[in-house]
Amino acid sequence: MLRTVLVANRGEIARRVFRACRQLGMRTVAVYSEADREAFHVREADEAVAIGGAPARESYLNSDRILEAARQARADAIHPGYGFLSENWRFAKAVQDAGIVFIGPKPDAIRRMGDKIEARRLMAAARVPILPGSLTPVANAAEARRAADEVGFPIILKAAVGGGGIGMARVGQEAELQSAFTTAARRAQGAFGSGELYVERYLERPRHVEVQVFGDDSGEVVHLHERECSIQRRHQKLVEESPAPNLPAASKAALTSTAVAGARAIGYTNAGTMEFLVDESGRFYFLEMNTRLQVEHPITEEATGLDLVVAQLRVGSGEPLPWRQSEIVQSRAAVECRVYAEDPTKGFLPSPGTVSKLALPSGRGIRIESGIEAGSTVSVHYDPLLLKLVTHAATRAQAVQRMADALDACVIEGVRTTVPFLRRVITSDEFRQGRVHTQMVEQGAFNA
Amino acid sequence: MPEDIKAHITGVVFQIPTKPGDRVAAGDAVIVLESMKMEIPVEAPRAGAVREIKVQEGQTVQEGDVVAVLE
Description:
Chain A is an alpha+beta fold and 448 residues long. Chain A contains 14 helices and 22 strands. Chain A folds into three domains: 100 residues, Rossmann fold (3-Layer(aba) Sandwich); 70 residues, ATP-grasp fold, A domain (Dna Ligase, domain 1, 2-Layer Sandwich), CATH 3.30.1490.20; 226 residues, ATP-grasp fold, B domain (D-amino Acid Aminotransferase, Chain A, domain 1).
């Protein structure tokens, strides 16, 4: 069993991982940037190491500094959390090469699934349905047009080394293709250092449904059922739930078995998520694989009663999976709302500042994963996620009602947050009836 | 009449796609801020020529700070 775990992250996810470490009797090491000297997560660890300046590239994205901190604190494992270096295969490999356990999949799996075109090819070979489109990069608008002619407009241009919705562009018709291609390639180049793009058919009103998978070193892979994550802005999730409502049993069974087959095909180990788009007819298509712990993992934990982070640490220690597939049952319904420091009345513009007042709900069926406390500074340098509200209950209707009450009891002052918007989502007829799709937020379905 | 262009949010100057003397149309990005992993353009409120850029890449600006001046 591992003795000392360094968490190469900040905020709520660092605290979440520390909690699992403590449960297993492991020593915890935090890292922090200059901006995070006073941060909540720093005080909770057994040891904390400063790693550099406030900009993430000087600290949380600086692999050398993080490895140095791990050596200094004698950590025998590094948990990357999500974001930052979590899906950087070079970092995972550098950790391994330093003789430290990387809590996550093997570097090769991260690399192969991080290249979105290779991922499409691998999944197609494993009989996982993919969206019609190109299986090689399109070098220019003319090549994109040829690919588009085969799948039909609208199409979406995506960055081959993409993520977070950057370098993606919906193209409704041929006339828009040239300028969309130029913009998407430039943005992808700027963000990822590669302007390589590919083409996929664009689905107009799909649902985003994903499957949590988990593998161990023996080659065993299980799934922990699905999550519905269609309420998104800028391709980033705001509300998630498990089980997915209105998903026919046959679709669900096909989704979960497909996800497991896809993960097996690449010899996947540790926690990962296979993301799918589901169209109105119930047909589903592979979107991408997230080769790390997801932000929304708590709803799977509450729906199944299992601890994903403890399992990550155990499997990372070389133990077999702690559960058999038959033991993994969705026995409850769970909902998560992400509270971001953003102003929903201004197109979700960031709202940095200082949290002057904080009062959060508590009680039966409520779980909070927070990275802030009253007095916390919300910096311009990092992701604006403040905290996650999770509710669970025996039925979906109860869990949703609990979420509505929890949001009403949530008081955050000093920065603008997504809470008022989340209240409108949770109390809307569409959400209550589970009739959601990924375009709803941008189409203004929940505007005041 | 010169007109100040102010940052509408707090952030770090990510990119300066214009320089003094450039003509811009209403809505063009005069500078681009980065805040909380998002790139946010500060747009020209009207058409005109850029008279002065008051910030540098990497600099932190507060909401309401003047970042550029239109001719």
